[in-house]
Design brief:
There is one protein chain. The chain has about 170 residues and is α+β, with helices and mostly antiparallel strands. The chain has 5 helices and 7 strands; from the N terminus they run βαααβββαβαββ. The chain has a 7-stranded mixed sheet. α1 packs antiparallel against α2. The longest helix is centred in the N-terminal third of the chain and has 15 residues. It starts with 8 loop residues before the first strand and ends in an 11-residue tail after the last strand.
């Protein structure tokens, strides 16, 4: 997204998005996590999208939103069970141009509107600073095995503002 470009448009995930989001997921992991994870770790992580039907099911089972820039898919994010920020991925060429922030803001607002007071995320090492800058506090360090590779992440939480209560005029 060029300097001065409009804020990305956001819309709900559609089943027809699955292939594009799987490709974006793989590209994002490969390019944006290169400083924090080695080639084998990134390949294992990206393999989560190899079974496109399972990947599509994961997206559909959560509240997933898609960001568009100039009509093209620019990123996506998911809210699982109303209180877990499950996924946030941005096209590598649009990283650090506001797409991730727009998606995060939307997920936080959606969670808050559903009554969630504390939002949790298992942030990758590549995303930890992004979430910290948004007010998420590190709670625990985790390791998980994905396709035979150990990957580290950090569980972080953010207290959400209570939804505004609108009064009725009498």
């Amino acid at each position: 997204m060029a300097h001065g470009a409009a804020t990305p448009g956001l819309r709900p995930y559609l089943p027809a998005d699955a292939a594009a989001l799987a490709a974006l997921f793989r590209a994002s992991v490969d390019a944006l996590a290169a400083e924090d994870y080695d080639d084998d770790q990134r390949a294992a992580w990206a393999s989560a999208a190899d079974d496109e039907a399972a990947f599509a099911s994961r997206l559909a089972d959560a509240l997933t939103i898609v960001a568009l820039v100039e009509g093209d898919v620019a990123g996506f994010a998911s809210l699982r069970n109303g209180a877990t920020f499950d996924m946030l991925y941005v096209r590598p060429d649009l990283a650090r141009h506001g797409v991730g922030s727009a998606l995060a803001e939307a997920i936080e607002k959606l969670a808050g509107a559903r009554g969630t007071s504390t939002l949790s995320v298992d942030a990758s090492d590549a995303a930890r600073d992004f979430f910290a800058a948004r007010g998420y506090i590190p709670k625990t360090r985790n390791t998980t095995t994905v396709a035979g590779q150990w990957l580290g992440n950090t569980t972080m939480t953010k207290e959400l503002a209570a939804p505004a209560v609108t009064g009725r005029a009498h």
